[in-house]
Structures are given as structure tokens and as C-alpha cells.
Amino acid sequence: MDTAEYRQTVVSVVTTIPTESPNRNGMVYSKDAVLRALAGTEAGLPITCSQEDAIYGRVNKVIGVTTCKPYAVHEVDRGVEFTVDGKIFFGDVNFRPNESGQSIEVVSISLGY
Known about the structure:
Mean pLDDT: 76
Number of helices: 1
Number of strands: 8
Order of helices and strands: EHEEEEEEE
Strand content: over 45%
Distance between the termini: 28 Å
Low-confidence stretches: none
Structural class: mainly beta
Largest sheet: 6 strands, antiparallel
Oligomer: single chain
């Protein structure tokens, strides 16, 4: 049995969902659709991170879970920005703290299934 010790860190993720133009998956969402989707979002969604794997190529790994509903939801120029709190479980994920040490950089982080 693997006895590796995992750390967990409480985080606040601020992100913007693009609207009126294609996202990285080619989907176009209206601001109204995004606002309705966020209003119906509950806590407990997985937080995933896209990483390169030597064997499988690009894979999504679950690195944590949200602990609340999205808040501070507001429209911005080309999207909808929101904040959600969660817990990140450190294991096989590479994080880079920013200069202040208060937040981390993770490429291509997402919420949901």
C-alpha cells in the first residue's frame, strides 16, 4: 500500500469563462447561459488540471474539489468572471507559487466533470 503523505491547501480560484467567442474546445456560450449555469452549480465539483503524461499524452487529473458555490460572479468584457473556493490535494501535480506566494499557477485548470 502506498503510504505517501498528501498535503491539502485551501485555495480560491478566480477564473473567466469566455462568451460570444469560441473557447479552447470550440464551444461558444452566451453570457446568459454561463450565468444560469453558475447559479445552478453546487459545491463538491472536481478541480482538474491538464498535464502531459509520458505514456498517455495530455491527461486531466483531479487535483482537488470545490467547497462552495461560485461567488463574486460578474460580467467582464468578453466573459463572466467568478471565484470559487476549494481544496487542492497535492500529490503528482507540479505547482508554481507566484512571487507573493499567495497563489499558484496551474496551466489549464477546470471545474466540473
